[in-house]
Amino acid sequence: MNNKIIAIDFDGTIVEDKYPEIGKPMIFAFETMRKLQSKGFRLILWTYRHGKRLDEAVQFCYKNGIEFYAVNSSFEGEIFDKETQSRKINADYFIDDRNLGGFPGWGEVYEIIKEKIEFGVEGRQVQPYSKTKHKNKRGFFSRIFKL
């Protein structure tokens, strides 16, 4: 059974960014999250929202079939002490519209996670890197600086 943890942002990731209101669900957001949960992933709602706005987001997700492992914490029941703990949470993956390159969409998110599991990034054996397949490819800096 998979026990990987995925921290997921709300505004701009699960729903369109209409903060402080709740936007329309992103295409395939809830379907993908349900699929990930069915495969054993633990989902954490990881959002800037707090108080009433956070409660609204949690209820919105619950009405759409998603109950989170934790909300804005590393595990259910964690008590955040700002004097002794970091606000950063513990997760294996973070899904957020503010990452470099922006949010790729839920179809792409699922494929990225699936590929990491299937091709060994998560502990399975990986096929050795073949230099012969890539011998004609030039590196990033070589292309930029025409080396």
TrEMBL record:
Domain of life: Bacteria
SUPFAM superfamilies associated with the record: HAD-like
UniProt cross-references to InterPro entries, sorted A to Z: HAD-like_sf (IPR036412), HAD_sf (IPR023214), Phage_SP01_Orf1 (IPR016769)
UniProt cross-references to NCBIfam families, sorted A to Z: HAD_phos_BT0820
Name of the molecule in the record: Hydrolase
Species annotation: Apibacter mensalis
